[in-house]
Amino acid sequence: MASVALLLPLVSAAPSATAGRPPASGTSPDSGASPDSGALQDDFAAAAAEYGVPQSVLLAVSYLQSRWDGHGGAPSVTGGYGPMHLTDARTALASAPHHSHGTEDARGDTSRTAKHGTPAELPGPSALPARLRTLERAAGLSGLSPERLRTSTAANIRGGAALLAAAQRELGRPASVDPGDWYGAVARYSGADDTATATTYADDVYDIIRSGERRTTDSGQVVALPADPDVAPETTQAAGLGLRTAATDGTECPRTVACEWVPAPYEEFGEGDYGNHDKADRPASQSVDHIVVHDTEATWDVTLKLVQDPEYVSWHYSVRSSDGHIAQHVPLKDVGWHAGNWYVNAKAVGLEHEGFLVAPDAWYTEAMYRTSARLVRYLAKRYGIPLDRQHILGHDNVPGPTATTVRGMHTDPGPYWDWAHYFELLGRPFTPTAGPRAAVVTIRPRYTAHQPLYTGCAKPGEACPPHGSGAVRLHTEPGESTPLVKDIGLRPGGQESTVDVNDTGARASTGQQYAVAERHGEWTAIWYLGQKAWFHNPRTRPTAVGARGWVLTPGEGLADIPVYGRAYPEASAYPAGVPVQAVSPLPYRLLAGQRYVVGDRVPGEYSYAPAFDASGHRVVRGEEA
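User: That's the sequence. What structure does it adopt?
Assistant: Structure tokens below.
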């Protein structure tokens, strides 16, 4: 079908979302636990009765924070513990922000000075806001020790109920049995400092009460919230919260999220240097084809300080973990510097999510997932972006633009981002489209039960806490004890891949599609980076399912196909005054007889934007695709 290939189809191809979906209720067949609908459900009932909080309110708040999971007592990305996400974030602070890690040039273009995203002086974290210290207050209200609130699920639920009851009292409201009377307290529980975010959070809680929920938690227990479609919250209570009104002028967000404008600066400084994004006129100048999901590796306050630094880098939106609040920084028509690949940057929107990939359990709140998904749906509709893993990328799926940059690319949001749940919220769940012996598979492990060993979360070589993962590990042969496949781009010397949480060399992620090379018992081999790669895929606990999709292979007489990390035009397409950009292949080769899923057909384009004065910016388009 083709004589050349772009790395995007190779690494993250998925023209349609096509993999098995876990049951909505009951215990998954690979969880190893028996359903228990008693203990955890009783804990919610007891806490609700003790503090006079309607049980449906307590259950819905907990679902929006954690989906009722306890995560084995490990904290979330912002230091939240347990089903009620009681926050104690002192240990969750990082010493350096995300875009200061590694050697990646966030802009990813050689037409001007590289921008590695290290400002002259990194802002230090300020005193923690109240929303990151709710566990401390819950301890005072409940009389329970901070240690018990962190480690005991029942105590954690009691602490959350105590916070809700206190908020109700402070608002001068009675401990009513009517869930609708608790709207103000629920909005307060969000921790938001602006009215729009607090009310969006409360609206989500009451949507959950109306629709009801039922699922099996990560501890194997069934929890149910019966639907109450007639609940009528008193939304006027939000006026009494005394919260600020966020600045929304300039924002490009759906009405279903709370969004404020925190602009990134477009400033000139030094000799020919400027920051921290590029002026453009998208989609008139170039189409917007991708959305890149990042995590910030910094707290919210530090994240906002960094994106407002003209000497730093930029992205379009940040999403807060505790309540899903969104801040927009760069107009969508302009190009942010975030992905480390200029071809991708020029045609993408960058979304940063507050969090830490390895700190230490890396679970994200349901509130964050939901508002992020609403924003992505809005952007996809606006620009005609397909909702699939070829176009909705993790930063760890963005290829290095040249061979020398592969090793410096970033690894977020990492193996703990729940792509399966994210795509369910996008309305595109990964469901099978072919039988179990299909020639194409979509990666789709059952997130909660799939817990491969990773190291390096706290210290190099030290095992990370057990945690659900959407990524499968790739071996050279069928068998857990066989070596992992090698990534010659990451390790040109031929060293083996590792199980370090930041090592992407032998990892395939949920939603990505691959051509099947071979099957042997419980193991499936796929073609991956020019080699055969095996992953465990037992029939009773599948980690991938059959799918349909176009595949490419070297044409007749070709020994291999070169692979590229960017799709720049042919040399003859460049006008005078615009330097020709090299179309240099990556170290990978697609060999004769191998097959790879086709993710997209892309134009040869280059956005020339080397200077602060945007009048000289041009988009070069070639004839090749």
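The longest strand covers residues 513-520.
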